[in-house]
Automatic annotation (TrEMBL):
Coiled coil: none
Keyword Ligase among record annotations: no
InterPro entries: Beta-barrel_TonB_sf, Plug_dom_sf
Organism annotation: Alistipes timonensis JC136
Subcellular location as annotated: Cell outer membrane
GO cellular component, one term: cell outer membrane
Record SUPFAM superfamilies: Porins
Annotated protein name in UniProt: Outer membrane receptor proteins, mostly Fe transport
Keywords annotated in UniProt: Cell outer membrane, Membrane, Receptor, Signal
Signal peptide segment: 1-30
Amino acid sequence: MKQIYALNVCRSARCWLHLMLVVWCGVAAAKSPVRDSAALRLPVQTDRVAAGDLVITASQIRAVDPVDLWKAISFYDPSISNSWEREHGSDPVYGAGDMTVRGSKRWARDEAVKPSRPLYIIDGALVDARKFFDTDINDVRQIIIRKDPVSLAQYGIRSADGVVEMKTQKPVKGPLKVRYMFDGIVEWADLGSYDLMSASEQLALIEREGLTTGSAASMQQHKASGKNVDWLNQLTRTVFRHRHKITVDGGDDNVKYALTGRIAPSGKGVVEGVEKEILGLGAYIEYRYKSFRISNDLTYDKTAKNSKLFGTLGDYARTPRWLDPDNGHGGYLKTMGHEEDAVRFENPLYELTLGSHNECRTYSIFDNVRLSLDLGAGFSVNGRFSFVRDLIRTDTYVSPASVRYASQTTDSYTGRYGIARSSIQTYDGAVDLTYRGSRGRSSYGASLQAGIFSGTYNMESYAGVGIPSDKMGYISFTKAYDPDTAPYAWRYYDRTVGGTLSAHYSYDERYTVAGTAHLDRSSMLAPGERTALFYGVSAAWNIGRERFLRRADWIDRLTLSAAIGTSGAVDALNSDYVVTYSSNIDNEYVYNYYLVGASVNFMPNPDLKWRTLVSRSVALQAEFAHALRLRVEYYNNDSKDLMTVDRLPLASGYRRNVSNGGRVRNSGLEYYLNATLYSRPGLSVSAFTSGSHNRNRIGELPGFFAAWYNEALSEGEAPLSEGESVNAIYAAESSFDGTTERAAGEAVAAGRAEPDLKGNFGVNVTWGKWHFGAAFDYRIGGQTFNRTLYDVQFGSPLYNLDRRALNPKYRRAFDGEPVRLQRFVERFDALNFSAVQVGYVFGAKAAGKLYMRNLALYLTGSNLFYCSGVDMQRGTVYPYTRTVTLSLRATF
């Protein structure tokens, strides 16, 4: 588990010197990476890593999870969190992407309209989250999580939610080589959080509470049947899948090339009917002549995701275990229960036998051209142009025989087939002119950068109903359009021009200052605020080079740095600042089809601003005795000009419009620590740990907006209150007189979702050609609402519940049942055994006997153990999984 953390950015006479901490197999070393002139999107820049950015290498990623890129990234950066994982678990179809870096920065309702997503970049090109996380882990060279204020300022209106950048593997000079990579994965569901009642226990609870399934005879029959169906194991399975990648590469000083093919043909999930398959092809060529270099990277990917799941894992957990799903003829019943039962239960397994499905096909082309030219005298030019084309085809079919149509007549319009087609086409180009020089103890440089981005996004969807048979699952067999879902289509454009001016100065490698100014003009912005300016400034003091510390040989490095900067994000929709109309096609009083009326949707705000993030940070980086490396950073970030609602005069014809207002602050502390515990020839032991503490608070909240927002809340949504966290958990107080529990007052903030401390720790051991590593992640403090315990107390015993329902103290009568009670808000501590890996690298002689140049084997176990202080069900939509992966890396 290699740990790399950026320590500082200094400037030498010819290049930016990047000192990074490296712990690999217990051996720590500071090194300067090879400067790559590959450009990034708006602005173009070299592979600089600012003081506050986090670098994760390919070996780190594969050590924690060689299958799931999202889990590996979130492990190494504790400041990353999301809102979906606890429910969707390890769903391979759902995917990642909606995540926050260093806390929530806006209101929850804004998150529902436009989820919080960092800017995702692959080799400088802007891509969406789906493409980023579908990238093969074996293609990743490093991941850079941009959090430094100066780094974020360089990406303008797209970076307030963070920047996650991927650098992919490129061929190196050498003779023709064939590389083969194989991953064999065994995966099974982690159902340890489910402790459900058995059939006999549930029937006894039904009788104890004076309920019945129907007649006394049917109740007795259920008892006598002896059925005890394990519904969770009926749905889940242990799967084996495999992935293959072949790369042919080589080159010399002038030309480098690589051809790549990858396939994952058996991407079955642990839930029946869930599959994900990937096919990828790639070609890379690079030409270099003296100081000029040009390269082209072309990839094609096809991803197929299928799901036949009807309902969720939680639905299966609630299904009574005394029901018999079999029809006695080798099939499944549509509904379950005795003929005299008052309640008939849907059979979720029956749905898996139908043709119902949700299929998504994605076809992606990615082409990236990069060039660089050294002009001499300290000047250089770098450029890049990329093209991305994605086609996404989604088909959703609900069989006419589905249980959801059980209450409808046979001649009604049962069965539904929906089609959605979307496409993304982007052009992205950038160029920069850079100067670097030095004189005496001083080094300095400047960069003038410009770029353009053009994106076109299309989507259309429609659905038909009325399908005669389960075997006729296509849109052509439907009788009419779905009356509940009208055909829908939209198209929007993103045209952005940006420029950046950067400069830096360093004296004697002790004092360093750097500044960046970035300007964006974009069609994403409102007409009155179409131009956005951002800035970033940083300063660093290398205390370790001062005279009064030069005799302290045990101090290898001691650097203090500070930075401040702004970045932006566009949360508004086009309709929020541009007049939009709706055609009155459903107006029953309009019969002239050639004169369809239209009306303005609502009052736009042409002066609507983007959301601005003001980032401030102070960091201390230290290295002692070549064995201990520490980085501690404090940050204080303010999100301003959030989306709000203003009251309008009645004379305008509208009650309100979208505006800007309010402020959300995130402040916290992050630390990264690496230590070499033992280092001798042939044996080394090292350890690492990192952690993040964040506090989220609403600093300003407009009164009218707060009243409007809280009044329109749906069940389960949290209100907004100035001074509280955006992630606050609200619950109603309650009183209990021994027999009855009653609500006592309005809901109040009873906890917060973010933990007091979240982080990881692990150990690495190297012994000869063997490597061993173990890693854990944890969270301490914070709260969560225990929905499982709530269901235990107020759920119907006719549906299966957690076994705690058998204890009378958990089953209370309740008058005026509130949605939230404070006692269900519990402290949330958790520990997860993230990964354990054993690897062996064969020597050249042993590999040569197998006609190979290099050979390595790794066995990795991921998410093998989890414990928490909150006894509740996890993965209620899709289960969490445990995996064991055997990886083979061979070079011929």
